[in-house]
Inverse folding.
């Protein structure tokens, strides 16, 4: 009798200890904790793009396929039609971290980072951390899409739909497809380590008060480590295309842009009927038109993009100041010139 009581109490102790431990793990913020979970624990309200679990057939795997291949399996069997005949989301957006530091939108820092990490250098902002942003199509995109942008400014679902239709020149996503893409984007949420929190910073965060009331200070501190929206400013081609922007180009850097950006879409006509490669004739053609007022002028297409005819054909999105600097444009020109043998 006595020994069984003894055993029973040991078992209870083990169980109790286990419970306490589980509880501990739940509340301890570590480098892998998703940022929204941390914000919520300090009393922040959820964003309006929380997944809607009531939509049947939506899941992150389907979303991932839509983003990468533009096609997935329908919940009731069979395959969807292609979302777009021209593009997939990853034609223009990375799905990985693309900036060495989340507060820095300098395109040169990004170019070096993506080239070290085997990623392309693109016009769209990475979808990594999109769920952590609360403002979309910022600044000058209003000039391009006008009223269409108003609905998307603070609504990630609307932003995805706008991009599916206008950027991809494709069809609208069905409810379950949209919800799937959103669920996939939630798998690309920032973790505390992405914000640059060290172990000692995390210790401090863990000591900040979590109670019944909102801890504004903790929320502000965490949100100050990343941008709530990607800035976007349109720039013009140089005043005089012959003299170009007032920078001396570095062909080595231009090579990176050509290979990680231009070829991403133009090599073997992957997303465009206009072919680019490493042949001298190709560079000669680009060089000849670079400074001109023609449809093949890189100044022209990179700064203004080409115009989409809705649903009809592919177009080229422009590079904002945050996606290619004037210096980088001159670097590209220097590389094109060098390869053309001039
Ligand atoms: C042809 C290029 C292109 C394609 C294809 C494309 N996008 Fe975009 N997308 C852009 C550009 C350019 C922007 C402008 C804002 C930015 O990303 O900085 C944008 C903006 C967005 C935004 C808002 C980002 C922000 O922070 O402002 C989301 C979300 C988005 N796209 C999702 C998608 C999804 C999902 C798909 C696939 C269904 C897709 N896009 C396909 C080019 C494209
Ligand atoms: C996101 C994909 C994408 C990227 C990146 C891209 N382009 Fe384009 N580009 C296109 C598409 C699509 C067109 C539309 C032409 C077509 O397919 O008919 C186009 C058009 C052009 C044209 C005009 C061709 C014509 O027939 O009028 C030139 C020149 C051009 N691109 C050069 C470049 C250069 C140089 C770069 C790198 C700085 C670049 N592109 C990056 C997709 C892209």
């Amino acid at each position: 009798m006595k020994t069984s009581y003894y055993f029973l109490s040991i078992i209870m102790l083990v169980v109790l200890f286990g419970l306490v431990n589980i509880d501990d793990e739940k509340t301890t913020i570590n480098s892998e904790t998703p940022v929204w979970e941390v914000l919520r624990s300090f009393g922040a309200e959820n964003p309006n793009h929380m997944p809607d679990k009531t939509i049947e057939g939506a899941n992150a795997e389907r979303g991932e396929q839509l983003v990468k291949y533009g096609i997935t399996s329908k919940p009731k069997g069979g395959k969807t039609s292609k979302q777009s005949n021209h593009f997939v989301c990853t034609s223009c957006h990375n799905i990985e971290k693309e900036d060495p530091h989340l507060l820095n939108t300098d395109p040169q820092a990004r170019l070096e980072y993506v080239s070290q990490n085997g990623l392309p250098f693109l016009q769209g902002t990475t979808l990594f951390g999109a769920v952590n942003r609360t403002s979309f199509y910022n600044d000058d995109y209003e000039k391009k899409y006008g009223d269409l942008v108003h609905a998307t400014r603070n609504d990630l679902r609307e932003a995805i739909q706008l991009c599916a239709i206008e950027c991809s020149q494709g069809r609208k996503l069905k409810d379950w497809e949209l919800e799937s893409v959103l669920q996939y984007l939630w798998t690309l949420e920032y973790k505390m380590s992405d914000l640059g929190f060290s172990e000692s910073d995390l210790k401090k965060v863990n000591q900040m008060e979590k109670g019944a009331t909102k801890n504004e200070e903790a929320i502000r501190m965490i949100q100050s480590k990343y941008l709530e929206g990607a800035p976007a400013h349109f720039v013009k081609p140089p005043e005089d295309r012959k003299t170009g922007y007032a920078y001396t180009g570095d062909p080595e850097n231009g090579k990176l842009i050509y290979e990680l950006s231009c070829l991403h879409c133009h090599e073997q006509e992957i997303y465009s009927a206009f072919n680019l490669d490493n042949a001298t004739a190709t560079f000669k053609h680009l060089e000849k038109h670079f400074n001109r007022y023609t449809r093949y002028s890189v100044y022209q297409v990179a700064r203004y993009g080409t115009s989409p005819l809705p649903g009809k054909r592919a177009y080229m999105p422009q590079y904002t100041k945050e996606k290619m600097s004037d210096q980088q444009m001159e670097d590209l020109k220097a590389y094109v010139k060098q390869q053309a043998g001039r």
